[in-house]
Amino acid sequence: MTAVAVHHLVTGPQDAPVVVLSNSLGSTHTMWDHQAEALARHFRVVRYDTRGHGQSPVPAGPYDIDDLADDVVALLDTLGVEQAHVVGLSLGGMTGVRLAARNPERVDRLVVLCTGARLEPSSAWHDRAATVRKHGTAAVAEAVVQRWFTAPYLDANPDTKAACEATVAGTPAEGYASSCEVIATMDLRPDLPAISAPTLAVAGADDRATPPPFLQAIAEGVQDGRLLVVPQSAHLANAEQPETITPAIIAHLTGASP
Predict the structure, then answer these.
(1) Is-contact 20 44, C-beta < 8 A?
(2) Which residues cross the membrane (predicted)?
(3) What is the pLDDT of residues 50-73, one digit of tens each?
């Protein structure tokens, strides 16, 4: 499939090192709101909506993980960026892993959060895709957001819960379903040893979707990896614990001590 021109937003100094932020399944570039301002003090920050999400085009499926990586390469080419840091969460993390393995010359440093090299059983992702195609993304929105955050966080932040459910429900059904099929079919485990970019793998201690052992496997599988497990955080750990995660991202990308 041909790469699509994804919707993107660029902030920060024109001459600073570039960092690309890649969103999770069912979210948009706004999922990085907690990080964007702090990152823009150090980097030229490129946030984008994965194909089929937000304001990006919704090509007909099926998609695969190489399509998502191709979109990032096309975005970098459009912006005239030869090499960038890549930070991705969940589906965005999978995109970053594939890109770092396949196009190592384009990735300087890598941060993956709350993701996995293989998410089984694949049948669960095909089932979710079928549900969304039949009933729309609103049918899964509440259950998805319950996995994104810990219960105490959701209880304390009802406005965030409502906003996130609306974001999931607003995701085009074909984009969401085809992205589920990306996860169903991808297996990035053979890619890990090829990744030379220094890699920080961040796990939410309470993440049921991609628990800490998934991130440990990535940290141990790449050539230069480190694991950070963040307490009191679930799948959207960057939003639940930005005070811990944002400085860790900046330290890793600048090469400072963790």
Answers:
(1) no
(2) none
(3) 999 999 999 998 999 999 999 999
